[in-house]
Amino acid sequence: MSSPCVSVVRYKDPYDSLKEAIDLINGLEDFHPQDRILIKPNLVAWDFDLPFPPYGVVTTAVLMEALVKILHDAGFHHIIIGEATLNIHKKDMGLAIYKQMGFDKLEQRYGVELVDFNLDEFEDVDFGDFSLSVAKKAVHADKIINFPVLKTHNQATVSLGIKNLKGCLNRKSKMFCHHKDRDLNYMFPHIIEKLPVALTIIDGIFALEKGPAQTGKAYRKDLIVASKDPFACDVVGAKILGYDVDEVEHLKYFAKVHKIDYKIEDVEIKGEDLKTHIERIESDWEWTEDNTMPMGFKKRGISGIAIRKYDNTLCTGCSMMYNPMLILVMSAFKGEPFKNVELVSGKKQIASKGYDYTVLFGNCACKLNKDNPNIKTPIPIKGCPPKFDKIIEGLKLAGLECNYKDYEAYRHYIFSRYKKQDGFDMELYCIT
Ligand code: SF4
Protein backbone atom coordinates (compact mmCIF):
# COMPACT_ATOMS: atom_id res chain seq x y z
CA MET A 1 0.00 0.00 0.00
CA SER A 2 1.37 3.43 -0.90
CA SER A 3 1.89 5.84 1.97
CA PRO A 4 -0.68 8.58 2.48
CA CYS A 5 0.27 11.95 1.18
CA VAL A 6 -0.32 15.32 2.85
CA SER A 7 0.64 18.73 1.52
CA VAL A 8 1.77 21.49 3.85
CA VAL A 9 2.00 24.81 2.09
CA ARG A 10 2.90 28.26 3.33
CA TYR A 11 0.03 30.68 2.86
CA LYS A 12 1.05 33.67 0.77
CA ASP A 13 -1.84 34.22 -1.59
CA PRO A 14 -5.32 32.69 -1.21
CA TYR A 15 -5.65 31.28 -4.71
CA ASP A 16 -2.07 30.32 -5.50
CA SER A 17 -1.24 28.82 -2.11
CA LEU A 18 -4.45 26.82 -1.91
CA LYS A 19 -4.04 25.60 -5.48
CA GLU A 20 -0.49 24.53 -4.71
CA ALA A 21 -1.70 22.61 -1.64
CA ILE A 22 -4.38 20.84 -3.70
CA ASP A 23 -2.17 20.17 -6.72
CA LEU A 24 0.69 18.71 -4.67
CA ILE A 25 -1.58 15.84 -3.68
CA ASN A 26 -3.58 15.69 -6.95
CA GLY A 27 -6.53 16.56 -4.77
CA LEU A 28 -9.08 16.86 -7.55
CA GLU A 29 -8.02 13.93 -9.72
CA ASP A 30 -10.99 11.78 -8.69
CA PHE A 31 -13.56 14.55 -9.15
CA HIS A 32 -15.90 14.48 -12.16
CA PRO A 33 -17.40 17.55 -13.83
CA GLN A 34 -20.94 16.46 -13.01
CA ASP A 35 -20.19 15.87 -9.30
CA ARG A 36 -22.25 17.70 -6.69
CA ILE A 37 -19.48 18.96 -4.45
CA LEU A 38 -20.29 19.94 -0.90
CA ILE A 39 -17.81 22.18 0.87
CA LYS A 40 -18.12 21.82 4.63
CA PRO A 41 -16.36 24.72 6.36
CA ASN A 42 -16.17 25.30 10.08
CA LEU A 43 -18.59 28.13 10.76
CA VAL A 44 -19.50 27.01 14.24
CA ALA A 45 -20.67 30.40 15.48
CA TRP A 46 -20.56 34.15 15.15
CA ASP A 47 -21.65 36.85 17.55
CA PHE A 48 -23.60 39.75 16.11
CA ASP A 49 -24.07 41.57 19.41
CA LEU A 50 -20.58 41.76 20.85
CA PRO A 51 -17.12 41.95 19.23
CA PHE A 52 -16.22 38.56 17.79
CA PRO A 53 -12.65 37.71 16.74
CA PRO A 54 -13.07 34.87 14.22
CA TYR A 55 -9.34 34.10 14.00
CA GLY A 56 -8.82 30.34 14.16
CA VAL A 57 -12.46 29.88 15.09
CA VAL A 58 -14.04 29.78 11.63
CA THR A 59 -12.80 29.08 8.11
CA THR A 60 -11.56 32.25 6.40
CA ALA A 61 -13.65 33.80 3.63
CA VAL A 62 -10.61 34.46 1.45
CA LEU A 63 -9.70 30.76 1.32
CA MET A 64 -13.34 29.83 0.79
CA GLU A 65 -13.54 32.15 -2.20
CA ALA A 66 -10.23 30.78 -3.51
CA LEU A 67 -11.49 27.19 -3.21
CA VAL A 68 -14.69 27.97 -5.08
CA LYS A 69 -12.71 29.74 -7.80
CA ILE A 70 -10.25 26.84 -8.11
CA LEU A 71 -13.13 24.40 -8.49
CA HIS A 72 -14.88 26.68 -10.95
CA ASP A 73 -11.72 27.14 -13.04
CA ALA A 74 -11.24 23.37 -13.07
CA GLY A 75 -14.71 22.90 -14.55
CA PHE A 76 -16.73 21.98 -11.46
CA HIS A 77 -19.94 23.93 -11.27
CA HIS A 78 -22.23 22.06 -8.85
CA ILE A 79 -20.89 23.54 -5.66
CA ILE A 80 -22.74 23.67 -2.35
CA ILE A 81 -21.51 25.21 0.89
CA GLY A 82 -23.21 23.67 3.90
CA GLU A 83 -22.95 24.01 7.65
CA ALA A 84 -25.14 23.43 10.71
CA THR A 85 -23.90 26.25 12.81
CA LEU A 86 -24.71 26.70 16.48
CA ASN A 87 -28.06 28.43 16.32
CA ILE A 88 -29.20 28.66 19.91
CA HIS A 89 -29.98 32.36 19.79
CA LYS A 90 -30.92 32.68 16.14
CA LYS A 91 -32.73 30.10 14.04
CA ASP A 92 -31.14 31.17 10.75
CA MET A 93 -27.67 31.77 12.18
CA GLY A 94 -26.02 29.94 9.24
CA LEU A 95 -27.56 32.28 6.67
CA ALA A 96 -26.63 35.28 8.81
CA ILE A 97 -23.00 34.10 8.92
CA TYR A 98 -22.93 33.54 5.15
CA LYS A 99 -24.17 37.10 4.71
CA GLN A 100 -21.71 38.50 7.22
CA MET A 101 -18.82 36.79 5.41
CA GLY A 102 -20.00 37.87 1.96
CA PHE A 103 -20.72 34.32 0.77
CA ASP A 104 -23.69 35.68 -1.18
CA LYS A 105 -21.07 36.92 -3.69
CA LEU A 106 -20.15 33.26 -4.31
CA GLU A 107 -23.79 32.62 -5.12
CA GLN A 108 -23.84 35.54 -7.58
CA ARG A 109 -20.42 34.99 -9.14
CA TYR A 110 -20.17 31.20 -9.29
CA GLY A 111 -23.70 29.93 -8.76
CA VAL A 112 -22.76 28.33 -5.45
CA GLU A 113 -25.69 27.01 -3.42
CA LEU A 114 -25.54 28.19 0.20
CA VAL A 115 -27.25 25.81 2.57
CA ASP A 116 -27.94 26.38 6.22
CA PHE A 117 -28.24 22.73 7.25
CA ASN A 118 -30.33 23.74 10.26
CA LEU A 119 -33.04 25.00 7.88
CA ASP A 120 -32.67 22.07 5.48
CA GLU A 121 -33.47 18.38 5.69
CA PHE A 122 -31.73 15.75 7.79
CA GLU A 123 -32.00 12.00 7.52
CA ASP A 124 -31.46 9.30 10.09
CA VAL A 125 -28.27 7.39 9.43
CA ASP A 126 -27.52 4.10 11.10
CA PHE A 127 -24.08 3.75 12.66
CA GLY A 128 -24.59 0.25 14.03
CA ASP A 129 -25.18 0.78 17.72
CA PHE A 130 -26.60 4.28 17.37
CA SER A 131 -28.11 6.50 14.73
CA LEU A 132 -27.65 10.19 13.98
CA SER A 133 -29.53 12.75 11.91
CA VAL A 134 -27.15 13.90 9.21
CA ALA A 135 -27.72 16.72 6.70
CA LYS A 136 -29.20 15.22 3.53
CA LYS A 137 -27.07 17.49 1.34
CA ALA A 138 -23.97 15.95 2.94
CA VAL A 139 -25.14 12.33 2.75
CA HIS A 140 -26.14 12.67 -0.90
CA ALA A 141 -23.24 14.78 -2.16
CA ASP A 142 -20.97 13.07 -4.67
CA LYS A 143 -17.87 14.51 -3.04
CA ILE A 144 -17.29 16.43 0.16
CA ILE A 145 -14.43 18.83 0.62
CA ASN A 146 -13.99 19.10 4.35
CA PHE A 147 -12.64 22.54 5.18
CA PRO A 148 -11.89 22.93 8.90
CA VAL A 149 -9.53 25.30 10.67
CA LEU A 150 -6.37 24.55 12.63
CA LYS A 151 -7.58 24.59 16.20
CA THR A 152 -7.28 22.94 19.53
CA HIS A 153 -10.40 21.93 21.42
CA ASN A 154 -10.93 21.82 25.16
CA GLN A 155 -12.88 18.55 24.96
CA ALA A 156 -11.51 16.83 21.86
CA THR A 157 -7.90 18.14 22.17
CA VAL A 158 -7.89 19.11 18.49
CA SER A 159 -10.75 19.97 16.16
CA LEU A 160 -9.68 19.33 12.58
CA GLY A 161 -11.32 17.40 9.72
CA ILE A 162 -12.83 14.42 11.52
CA LYS A 163 -14.32 16.61 14.23
CA ASN A 164 -15.56 19.23 11.75
CA LEU A 165 -18.08 16.76 10.37
CA LYS A 166 -20.07 16.99 13.59
CA GLY A 167 -21.34 20.17 11.97
CA CYS A 168 -23.33 18.00 9.54
CA LEU A 169 -25.62 16.84 12.36
CA ASN A 170 -28.85 18.34 13.58
CA ARG A 171 -28.88 19.83 17.05
CA LYS A 172 -30.38 16.78 18.73
CA SER A 173 -27.73 14.48 17.31
CA LYS A 174 -24.95 16.88 18.22
CA MET A 175 -26.21 16.79 21.80
CA PHE A 176 -26.45 13.01 21.61
CA CYS A 177 -22.72 12.89 20.77
CA HIS A 178 -22.07 14.40 24.22
CA HIS A 179 -23.37 11.17 25.67
CA LYS A 180 -23.20 10.36 29.34
CA ASP A 181 -22.25 6.71 28.86
CA ARG A 182 -20.13 6.82 25.74
CA ASP A 183 -17.51 9.52 25.50
CA LEU A 184 -17.74 12.21 22.85
CA ASN A 185 -14.41 11.07 21.42
CA TYR A 186 -15.90 7.68 20.56
CA MET A 187 -18.98 9.15 18.90
CA PHE A 188 -18.17 11.79 16.30
CA PRO A 189 -15.27 9.89 14.63
CA HIS A 190 -17.93 7.62 13.13
CA ILE A 191 -19.72 10.36 11.19
CA ILE A 192 -17.19 10.28 8.34
CA GLU A 193 -17.99 6.60 7.68
CA LYS A 194 -21.24 7.60 5.98
CA LEU A 195 -20.01 10.66 4.13
CA PRO A 196 -18.17 10.87 0.80
CA VAL A 197 -15.25 12.96 2.04
CA ALA A 198 -12.85 13.16 -0.91
CA LEU A 199 -10.56 15.90 0.26
CA THR A 200 -9.69 17.57 3.55
CA ILE A 201 -8.17 21.04 3.60
CA ILE A 202 -7.14 22.57 6.91
CA ASP A 203 -7.23 26.34 6.85
CA GLY A 204 -4.21 27.13 8.98
CA ILE A 205 -3.89 30.85 8.37
CA PHE A 206 -4.44 30.97 12.13
CA ALA A 207 -4.01 28.37 14.85
CA LEU A 208 -6.24 28.57 17.91
CA GLU A 209 -5.10 27.77 21.43
CA LYS A 210 -7.69 26.67 24.03
CA GLY A 211 -10.35 26.46 21.33
CA PRO A 212 -12.85 25.92 19.94
CA ALA A 213 -14.40 29.33 20.57
CA GLN A 214 -13.30 32.95 20.42
CA THR A 215 -12.25 32.83 24.07
CA GLY A 216 -9.14 30.93 22.97
CA LYS A 217 -6.04 32.67 21.70
CA ALA A 218 -5.20 32.78 18.02
CA TYR A 219 -1.77 32.85 16.44
CA ARG A 220 -0.93 33.67 12.87
CA LYS A 221 0.35 30.42 11.36
CA ASP A 222 0.10 30.90 7.59
CA LEU A 223 -0.27 27.26 6.63
CA ILE A 224 -2.57 25.20 4.47
CA VAL A 225 -2.67 21.43 5.00
CA ALA A 226 -4.44 19.16 2.52
CA SER A 227 -4.91 15.47 1.87
CA LYS A 228 -7.24 12.95 0.30
CA ASP A 229 -6.66 10.85 3.40
CA PRO A 230 -8.72 12.42 6.23
CA PHE A 231 -6.86 10.65 9.01
CA ALA A 232 -3.41 11.54 7.68
CA CYS A 233 -4.51 15.15 7.27
CA ASP A 234 -5.66 15.33 10.90
CA VAL A 235 -2.52 13.59 12.13
CA VAL A 236 -0.38 16.22 10.42
CA GLY A 237 -2.65 19.06 11.61
CA ALA A 238 -2.47 17.75 15.18
CA LYS A 239 1.30 17.49 14.92
CA ILE A 240 1.56 21.12 13.86
CA LEU A 241 -0.46 22.02 16.96
CA GLY A 242 2.05 19.95 18.96
CA TYR A 243 0.01 16.77 19.51
CA ASP A 244 0.84 13.17 18.67
CA VAL A 245 -1.93 10.72 17.88
CA ASP A 246 -1.45 9.09 21.29
CA GLU A 247 -2.52 12.31 22.96
CA VAL A 248 -5.69 12.73 20.92
CA GLU A 249 -8.28 10.23 22.03
CA HIS A 250 -10.51 10.48 18.96
CA LEU A 251 -7.59 9.99 16.57
CA LYS A 252 -6.40 6.97 18.54
CA TYR A 253 -9.93 5.61 18.44
CA PHE A 254 -10.28 6.33 14.71
CA ALA A 255 -7.04 4.47 13.99
CA LYS A 256 -8.21 1.51 16.06
CA VAL A 257 -11.67 1.31 14.48
CA HIS A 258 -10.30 1.65 10.95
CA LYS A 259 -7.30 -0.59 11.60
CA ILE A 260 -4.87 2.13 10.58
CA ASP A 261 -1.37 1.20 11.56
CA TYR A 262 0.73 3.81 9.82
CA LYS A 263 2.50 6.45 11.84
CA ILE A 264 3.22 10.06 11.02
CA GLU A 265 6.70 9.00 9.91
CA ASP A 266 5.02 6.96 7.15
CA VAL A 267 3.10 9.96 5.82
CA GLU A 268 4.63 11.57 2.77
CA ILE A 269 4.71 15.32 3.37
CA LYS A 270 4.83 17.49 0.28
CA GLY A 271 5.77 21.14 0.44
CA GLU A 272 7.04 22.61 3.69
CA ASP A 273 9.38 20.92 6.13
CA LEU A 274 6.85 19.82 8.77
CA LYS A 275 9.17 19.99 11.73
CA THR A 276 9.78 23.71 11.29
CA HIS A 277 6.08 24.36 11.88
CA ILE A 278 5.44 22.28 14.98
CA GLU A 279 4.64 24.42 17.98
CA ARG A 280 2.69 23.13 20.93
CA ILE A 281 -0.23 25.24 22.05
CA GLU A 282 -2.53 24.36 24.94
CA SER A 283 -5.87 22.75 24.25
CA ASP A 284 -7.60 23.27 27.56
CA TRP A 285 -7.97 25.57 30.54
CA GLU A 286 -6.08 24.70 33.65
CA TRP A 287 -8.16 23.79 36.72
CA THR A 288 -7.11 23.44 40.35
CA GLU A 289 -6.06 19.96 41.41
CA ASP A 290 -9.03 19.63 43.75
CA ASN A 291 -11.37 20.56 40.89
CA THR A 292 -12.76 23.65 42.55
CA MET A 293 -12.08 26.39 40.03
CA PRO A 294 -10.00 27.50 37.04
CA MET A 295 -6.42 28.28 38.05
CA GLY A 296 -7.03 31.88 36.99
CA PHE A 297 -9.68 32.18 39.73
CA LYS A 298 -7.31 30.83 42.34
CA LYS A 299 -4.62 33.28 41.31
CA ARG A 300 -7.11 36.11 41.80
CA GLY A 301 -7.82 34.88 45.33
CA ILE A 302 -11.39 33.79 44.66
CA SER A 303 -12.71 31.41 47.33
CA GLY A 304 -15.99 30.15 48.79
CA ILE A 305 -17.04 28.54 45.53
CA ALA A 306 -16.41 25.16 43.91
CA ILE A 307 -16.95 25.21 40.17
CA ARG A 308 -16.57 21.66 38.89
CA LYS A 309 -14.75 21.50 35.60
CA TYR A 310 -16.98 20.83 32.58
CA ASP A 311 -16.74 17.32 31.18
CA ASN A 312 -17.35 15.91 27.70
CA THR A 313 -21.08 15.55 28.36
CA LEU A 314 -21.44 19.32 28.22
CA CYS A 315 -22.56 20.04 24.70
CA THR A 316 -21.60 23.01 22.58
CA GLY A 317 -24.63 25.07 23.63
CA CYS A 318 -23.77 24.95 27.34
CA SER A 319 -20.05 25.18 26.53
CA MET A 320 -20.65 28.47 24.74
CA MET A 321 -22.37 29.85 27.86
CA TYR A 322 -19.89 28.37 30.30
CA ASN A 323 -17.14 30.90 29.71
CA PRO A 324 -19.58 33.85 30.00
CA MET A 325 -20.79 32.29 33.27
CA LEU A 326 -17.20 32.21 34.56
CA ILE A 327 -16.67 35.84 33.60
CA LEU A 328 -19.90 36.74 35.42
CA VAL A 329 -18.72 34.87 38.53
CA MET A 330 -15.49 36.84 38.36
CA SER A 331 -17.43 40.08 38.08
CA ALA A 332 -19.15 39.26 41.39
CA PHE A 333 -15.88 38.84 43.28
CA LYS A 334 -15.15 41.85 45.46
CA GLY A 335 -12.35 40.36 47.56
CA GLU A 336 -14.60 38.50 50.02
CA PRO A 337 -15.17 34.71 49.89
CA PHE A 338 -18.42 33.62 48.27
CA LYS A 339 -21.09 31.99 50.44
CA ASN A 340 -20.04 28.35 50.18
CA VAL A 341 -21.39 27.63 46.72
CA GLU A 342 -20.96 24.65 44.40
CA LEU A 343 -21.69 24.72 40.68
CA VAL A 344 -22.20 21.58 38.57
CA SER A 345 -23.01 21.15 34.90
CA GLY A 346 -23.54 18.56 32.18
CA LYS A 347 -25.05 15.10 32.34
CA LYS A 348 -22.81 13.40 34.90
CA GLN A 349 -21.89 15.77 37.70
CA ILE A 350 -23.56 14.90 41.00
CA ALA A 351 -23.61 17.78 43.48
CA SER A 352 -21.69 17.06 46.68
CA LYS A 353 -22.48 17.47 50.36
CA GLY A 354 -21.35 20.40 52.44
CA TYR A 355 -22.36 23.40 50.35
CA ASP A 356 -24.96 25.98 51.34
CA TYR A 357 -25.95 26.72 47.75
CA THR A 358 -25.79 24.44 44.74
CA VAL A 359 -26.03 25.99 41.30
CA LEU A 360 -27.23 23.56 38.65
CA PHE A 361 -26.06 24.91 35.30
CA GLY A 362 -28.37 23.88 32.44
CA ASN A 363 -31.33 21.53 32.11
CA CYS A 364 -29.20 18.38 32.23
CA ALA A 365 -27.62 19.23 35.59
CA CYS A 366 -31.03 20.31 36.94
CA LYS A 367 -32.62 17.01 35.91
CA LEU A 368 -29.77 14.83 37.15
CA ASN A 369 -29.68 16.50 40.58
CA LYS A 370 -33.42 16.98 41.03
CA ASP A 371 -33.68 14.71 44.06
CA ASN A 372 -30.05 14.83 45.17
CA PRO A 373 -30.13 14.66 49.00
CA ASN A 374 -26.67 16.29 49.21
CA ILE A 375 -28.14 19.60 48.16
CA LYS A 376 -29.20 22.10 50.82
CA THR A 377 -30.37 24.99 48.63
CA PRO A 378 -30.73 24.07 44.96
CA ILE A 379 -30.47 26.88 42.44
CA PRO A 380 -31.50 25.52 39.06
CA ILE A 381 -30.37 27.63 36.14
CA LYS A 382 -32.60 26.16 33.51
CA GLY A 383 -32.13 26.32 29.78
CA CYS A 384 -30.65 24.26 27.02
CA PRO A 385 -28.39 26.16 27.22
CA PRO A 386 -29.26 28.78 29.88
CA LYS A 387 -29.54 32.39 28.78
CA PHE A 388 -27.66 35.33 30.29
CA ASP A 389 -30.59 36.67 32.34
CA LYS A 390 -31.17 33.24 33.90
CA ILE A 391 -27.48 32.86 34.74
CA ILE A 392 -27.34 36.30 36.36
CA GLU A 393 -30.61 35.63 38.26
CA GLY A 394 -29.43 32.21 39.48
CA LEU A 395 -26.01 33.40 40.59
CA LYS A 396 -27.70 36.23 42.47
CA LEU A 397 -29.72 33.71 44.45
CA ALA A 398 -26.40 32.15 45.47
CA GLY A 399 -25.21 35.56 46.67
CA LEU A 400 -23.18 36.48 43.58
CA GLU A 401 -24.00 39.97 42.32
CA CYS A 402 -22.80 39.77 38.73
CA ASN A 403 -22.29 42.64 36.36
CA TYR A 404 -23.08 42.01 32.70
CA LYS A 405 -21.07 45.11 31.76
CA ASP A 406 -17.93 43.33 32.95
CA TYR A 407 -18.70 40.55 30.49
CA GLU A 408 -19.10 43.11 27.71
CA ALA A 409 -15.79 44.72 28.69
CA TYR A 410 -14.12 41.29 28.60
CA ARG A 411 -15.43 40.68 25.09
CA HIS A 412 -14.08 44.04 23.95
CA TYR A 413 -10.74 43.16 25.52
CA ILE A 414 -10.61 39.81 23.73
CA PHE A 415 -11.24 41.48 20.40
CA SER A 416 -8.76 44.28 21.01
CA ARG A 417 -5.91 41.81 21.62
CA TYR A 418 -5.67 41.26 17.87
CA LYS A 419 -4.06 43.99 15.79
CA LYS A 420 -4.22 44.42 12.05
CA GLN A 421 -0.48 45.14 11.91
CA ASP A 422 0.14 41.66 13.42
CA GLY A 423 -1.86 40.01 10.63
CA PHE A 424 -5.22 39.89 12.35
CA ASP A 425 -7.34 41.39 9.68
CA MET A 426 -11.12 41.10 9.60
CA GLU A 427 -10.91 41.45 5.82
CA LEU A 428 -9.79 37.81 5.70
CA TYR A 429 -13.32 36.98 6.83
CA CYS A 430 -15.24 38.90 4.21
CA ILE A 431 -15.60 38.40 0.48
CA THR A 432 -15.86 41.77 -1.20
S1 SF4 B 1 -28.66 21.56 28.94
FE1 SF4 B 1 -26.62 21.89 28.15
S2 SF4 B 1 -25.57 19.92 28.34
FE2 SF4 B 1 -27.79 19.55 28.51
S3 SF4 B 1 -28.47 19.06 26.43
FE3 SF4 B 1 -28.77 21.26 26.75
S4 SF4 B 1 -26.92 22.25 25.96
FE4 SF4 B 1 -26.45 20.07 26.29
Overview in brief:
The chain is α/β, with parallel strands linked by helices and 432 residues long. Helix content is 29%, strand content 21%.
Write a structural description.
The protein is 29% helix and 21% strand. By secondary structure, it is an alpha/beta fold. It folds into 2 domains: 5-283, LarA, N-terminal domain (Rossmann fold), CATH 3.40.50; 295-401. Helix 1 packs across helix 2 and helix 11 packs across helix 13 (388-397). The mean pLDDT is 97. The chain binds iron/sulfur cluster (SF4). Iron/sulfur cluster (SF4) binds at residues 175, 314-315, 317-318, 346, 362-364, 384-385. Residues 175, 314-315, 317-318, 346, 362-364, 384-385 line the site of iron/sulfur cluster.
Helix % is: 25-40%
Under CATH, the topology of the largest domain can be stated as Rossmann fold
Total strands: 16
**Portion in strands:** 15-25%
Bound molecules: iron/sulfur cluster
Radius of gyration: 22 Å
Number of helices: 14
Protein traits:
single chain; 432 residues; alpha/beta; Rossmann fold; 2 domains; ten-stranded mixed sheet; four-stranded parallel sheet; 29% helix; binds iron/sulfur cluster
Topology, element by element:
Elements: E1 5-10, H1 14-24, E2 36-41, H2 61-73, E3 78-83, H3 93-100, H4 104-110, E4 113-116, E5 122-126, E6 131-135, H5 136-139, E7 143-147, E8 149-153, E9 157-159, H6 161-164, H7 171-177, E10 197-209, E11 217-227, H8 230-240, H9 249-257, E12 268-271, H10 295-299, E13 305-307, H11 316-332, E14 341-345, E15 357-361, H12 363-368, E16 378-381, H13 388-397, H14 404-416
Parallel strand pairs: 1-12, 2-3, 2-7, 3-4, 7-10, 8-10, 13-14, 14-15, 15-16
Antiparallel strand pairs: 1-11, 5-6, 8-9, 10-11
The structure holds iron/sulfur cluster (SF4).
